[in-house]
Amino acid sequence: MNLKVLFLNLRIPFLVVAEAKLFLQTLCVLIRCQGQEKIIRAVIDTGSQSSNESEKIMTQLKAFPLRTETVIHALFGGDETEPKSHKVFAIEVSSLNRVFSCGFEAFSEKKICSFIPRIENDEILNELKRKKIVFADFFREETDINLLIGADVLGKLLTGNTVVLECGLTAVETKLGWTVFGKGSCRIDNFLPSLSMHSMSLPANKLWELEVLGIASENEKQKDDFNLKVNKIK
Prior knowledge:
Keywords: Signal
InterPro entries: Peptidase_aspartic_dom_sf
Signal peptide: 1-18
Number of strands: 14
Protein name: DUF1758 domain-containing protein
Radius of gyration: 19 Å
Shape: globular
Strand content: 35-45%
Structural class: alpha+beta
């Protein structure tokens, strides 16, 4: 059996009260596979040895896998998953203006990660506009992350151009478009979904329980109110 061990950052959603928003490297790209194409939202993750695309998108594109490989994921903290079969697809990804495209293989995954907020703060967007930086994560119809671009592909995409913004974020140019990440100075007052590269031995149905998140609840009504707030943010 062909068994691979791949390093992968396990993302577990939790809630934090933050004074500044922390943004990850996200962008919208055009994905093609076997004559079909679709605009999707992607995240760049240098901590992952492999690139991954969602099973949903591959189904929508009516794609056929090249092969199936059995993989053990080595997670942050030293934990390893049980061997799991992943379909491998050959995909082509291009910038939205179709100026650049590249092909690579990606493992299929049922869900790439939980919600990642996009930059919508006017102060940040205006600064990007003044500096003539065309932010690539602007396609408002796409919210889910359906592609993870790992270290196996990222090296081919970087141009070397970076700009440190006044708000504290860093803009990095890739051949697929500009991404912006880091901890910004824009203040917020509400609860935000966040992503952690932290490994936690808990079943999936326990991740959103208030006790696991470290938030005490006196009764079920408080829990319902809390879930309502999270849904509004999504």
